[in-house]
Amino acid sequence: MAKRRFKGGEIPTSSMADIAFLLLIFFLVTTTIDTDKGLGVILPPPGDMEIEIRKENILNCLINSQGKVLLDEEPTSIDQIHRTVGQRLRENSKLIVSVKAHPKTAYNDYVRVIDQLKMADAKRISIANSK
To answer: 59 lies in a domain?
Structure first.
């Protein structure tokens, strides 16, 4: 009997590129990317339609650059907005809250005001132009 000579073990490298490509495709397909959700606001349809609204049905909410809030020219802390607006909504179900912010208002303050209005169950919110 003749002795067989053992050759060193080799790893087949011909299919390595295929395996790397399959792993790349697998991770691309299974990876999810988080997206910013932003504010959930339903915008009206485009058009030039203007509706007359009586003054007693409008509640003006002004936010200055320091984050201070005025509700109908009365200073109000952001944490108290939902109580004040909730009370006004119970008195007048047709109330529309008009939010106007200074151009240098911090985004965080603006979001906090919108969140307070949502807590007060305000369904009609008008975002006024800051010009």
So the answer is: yes
pLDDT (tens digit per residue) in 62-93: 999 898 998 888 888 888 888 999 998 899 88
Angstrom distances, CA of residue 94 to CA of 79, 122, 123: 23, 10, 10
Give 36-72 pLDDT, tens digit per residue: 776 676 777 777 667 777 888 888 999 998 989 988 8
What is the rounded distance in angstroms from the CA atom of residue 111 to the CA atom of residue 95? 20
Total domains in the fold of the chain: 1
Residue-wise DSSP of the chain: -PPPPPPPP----TTHHHHHHHHHHHHHHH-----------PPPPSS-------GGGEEEEEE-TTS-EEETTEEE-GGGHHHHHHHHHHH-TT-EEEEEE-TT--HHHHHHHHHHHHHTT---EEE----
What domain range includes position 98?
55-127
Out of 23-32, 51-60, 94-103, pick the least confident: 51-60
